[in-house]
Design brief:
The protein is α+β, with helices and mostly antiparallel strands and 425 residues long. The strands form six sheets. It has a six-stranded mixed beta sheet. The chain has helices at 55-59, 67-77, 100-112, 127-131, 317-329, 342-349, 380-394, and strands at residues 28-33, 47-51, 86-92, 137-139, 148-158, 168-174, 184-189, 195-202, 212-214, 220-229, 239-241, 247-253, 259-266, 281-282, 285-286, 294-301, 306-314, 332-336, 357-360, 364-367, 374-377, 411-412.
Amino acid sequence: MGDPVFGVVIRPVDEESRPIIGADLSTIGIIGPAADADASVYPLDTPVLVYSNDTTKTKKLGTKGYLADGITGINDQLGEMQFAARVVVVRTADGVDVDPAIKLQKTINNIVGSSLDNTGIHAFLKSVGMLGVTPRLICAPGYTGQLANSVNTLELESGGEGYVEGQVYPLTFSGGGGNAVQAVATATGQADGTLGEVILSQPGAWYSTPPDVVAPSAGKRVTAVEVEGGGSGYAVNDIVTLPGGASVAVTTIDNAGAITAAVLASPGLIAADAAAPANPARDVSSTGSGHGATFELTWTAYVAATYTATVAQGANPVCVALNSVLDQLLGHAVVESKGVSQVDDENWRETISSKRLIPISGGCKVLDPVTSDVVYRPLAPRIIGVGVRRDQEKGAPFHSWANQPIQGRRRTGPRHYLCAHRRRQ
């Protein structure tokens, strides 16, 4: 017997037809430097839509860097009756330095770019508005395998004072080497007024020494008060509010109601870098009818919390920065190690945990179209080309790219790539 029912019961049946909303998940995004590219066609940090069979545009990428080679590698993988891939190209600046290692670091920093300016990999986010397409298969050929020293731990030395419980305060990093990309972290105020829990959202990169870490002071407050002018009309226990949110309690008055003595009731609070209100501080308001009193206030900064950072070899900066961009694009990126040795590849692989990164052991040997020499080139664009081919063959991006032939190569690098991955939105 069913439950008793009073009134009307509506039981919706979830069998209504719904339209299928299509989405192109096979648009490629490729990023990197190309020093001899035509800047009028490929402005820096700007997404440019290219069909991979458009030789007029692809030739304007020049021969330096890996962008032109990447498009060649993509074309090599296209399947039957698949004449071109749709590619969004973002050209970034080459690093400038006489030291090749520092030049490489600066080049990678330019690829990482800034979310505030939509430069580097963040430029892909402009594709929807500028080009009407969304790149969802991303690669930065040649620049995802370099590991960088980054912040490993942040140790609290002193919790400071005056912090608001639950409020989040940014930590500032500086130093650590001339080319360091500074880490980003925040700390949360605790019930006892100290700073406690730390969240390291970006570990930074290229530290040669541990960076300095500075926590903001909670601000300035009044620590001493003296009566300058007593005013008139006050009563004992009146609370007098002063500039900066400080207040005093009246303890003694004369016959005219002028304040002769008062104690600090509330210390107030102003920003640590703000100028203290000028003395004498004048009565802003009072709980009684008095007026005109002035005070000499002593403002003192709260003691800031202190932290000590340690650094260790960490993830590749491009791999770290890709995660948030890929989440916004609902995309994936093929990232590759340097492919030098199994130990190096495994160390690099241990730094990757994102579901949106497809890690492979990097490198393959191809024939240079200019010199006819066998050269070592990034494998990532070629794997993405395999993915585009599979999407064309199967009609949906849910089929594994594994165990597929890689065309246009003489052989892979020292280790064959491992890529058993099904893409999902």
